[in-house]
Structures are given as structure tokens and as C-alpha cells.
Amino acid sequence: xxxxxxxxxxxxxxxxxxxxxxxxxxxxxxxxxxxxxxxxxxxxxxxxxxxxxxxxxxxxxxxxxxxxxxxxxxxxxxxxxxxxxxxxxxxxxxxxxxxxxxxxxxxxxxxxxxxxxxxxxxxxxxxxxxxxxxxxxxxxxxxxxxxxxxxxxxxxxxxxxxxxxxxxxxxxxxxxxxxxxxxxxxxxxxxxxxxxxxxxxxxxxxxxxxxxxxxxxxxxxxxxxxxxxxxxxxxxxxxxxxxxxxxxxxxxxxxxxxxxxxxxxxxxxxxxxxxxxxxx
Length: 280
Fold this sequence. Notes:
- The protein is mainly α.
- Helices cover 36% and strands 5% of the residues.
- It has helices at residues 2-16, 31-38, 55-61, 78-84, 101-107, 124-130, 148-155, 176-182, 202-208, 226-236, 248-255, 271-278; strands at 44-46, 67-69, 91-92, 114-115, 138-139, 166-167.
- A 6-stranded parallel beta sheet has the order 1-2-3-4-5-6, with no helix packed on it.
- Helix 8 packs parallel to helix 9 (202-208), helix 9 packs parallel to helix 10 (226-236) and helix 10 (226-236) packs parallel to helix 11 (248-255).
- The longest helix has 15 residues, at 2-16.
- The protein starts with a helix and ends with a helix.
- Residues 1-18 have low confidence and may be disordered.
């Protein structure tokens, strides 16, 4: 009988107590719940079904000594952002689609990796605020473009190696002015990847290809002009799995590129282009 009672008590604890594997299903969070969850020792606290959080609950969660994922939040108050800014481990807020400059300034004080991949656009003031985040990687992969002022602001962000880099993998277009500002960033501060670009205007290619410019790969290109190819292939190499056409002049430039050639999407190749690729 005693064994039956103990077993029932254990099962009750399992149902009532929030565990790491089921916290992801929580849709509401009291301050008391947040206080208990903050003491979780698993290293990862996933609360991706939460769509709102109070500043008081955020303050408690900021004590958590591990990765904190709140990807269900679609909006955040300045007060809650300030509380989460005191968290000292990886913080993921990929559900946010908008972020005020004041909330960005509060989150910029965060002392570890910060992920805001849900943002598709940011104001110049928000970019300036986020540029002050320097204590870990900053993920802004949802942005599709940047204004020249925003690019200049982010280009001034400081870092110190791969674990501090800025990630802008979602960019699909840039003005020549924004491109020129972005490539001024050292490789320690930006990884130089533009995988979502499908094509690149010649004036943007000239900006990206500036001497010492930090652009390293554009694997999403489907078309490229002869001038852009001459400018960019020496920098981005031959990993072009989406490229669908290649002129003889572009092939000559590609033949001089570093690394392996990956041209999986080419369905035809002019004789002169093939000859250029195979000549020493």
C-alpha cells in the first residue's frame, strides 16, 4: 500500500511540476512560475508558446543560467526588454516582428548571444541601438534590406571573433551606399555572407567589391552580369549552386575564382564558357 501511495505521489509531481520538455507548451506565465523556472538547471529553457510577458516575469526569467528561448513573443514592452537585457546567456526572441528603438537599446545591454530573426525591417534608430550589442552573436536574419544609415550604424558594431559576429543572411537587396557601408565591417564582426541575393546590380557589385571589402559568399545568385562577375567572383568564389546562366566573359572571371566550382543549376553552357572554365 505504501508503495502505491508513493508511486501516486510521484506521478502527481510529474504532472504538476513544469519540466524542461513541457515548458514549451506554457501559454501563460505568472511571476511565481517564472521564479521557479528560472532555477531550472538543464541549461535550456524553452517557452516558445508564450505570446506575452510581464516585466515582473521577465525579471525573474533573466536570472536563468542558460539559454532562454521566448520565440512566441510577438511584442515586448520597454520594461520587459530592460529586464531581459540583464540575462547573461543566449536569448532568442525570434517571434518579434517589430522593435522600438528604446526596446532595442534595452536589449543591447544583453551580455550574450541575441537572436531577433523575426524582424523584417528596422528603423535607423533601432539599428543604432542594436549596434551597441557587443557581447555575443547578433542574429538579424529576417531583415531583407537595410537603409544606408542603418548599414552605417551596424558597421560600427564592435566584435572580437566568430562568437561575436553579426548575421544578416536574409538580405535580398541593398543600395550601393548601404552595401559600401556593410562591407567595411571586419570579418570578426560580420560573416560576409549574402545567401539570399538572387541577382546584384552592377553599381551594388562595385560597392561590394571595394578593396578590403568583406563580402565572402553569395550562393543564392541565379543570374549575374559580366561586369558584376568580374568584380565579385574573385571575392565570393565559385560556390554558385543556384546560378542558371553563365556567359563566356563571366566564365573567364569564374575560372580565376578561389575554391571549388559548384554550378548545380546550369542546364546549358556555351562552348566558349566551357572552354574558359577548363583553360589553365
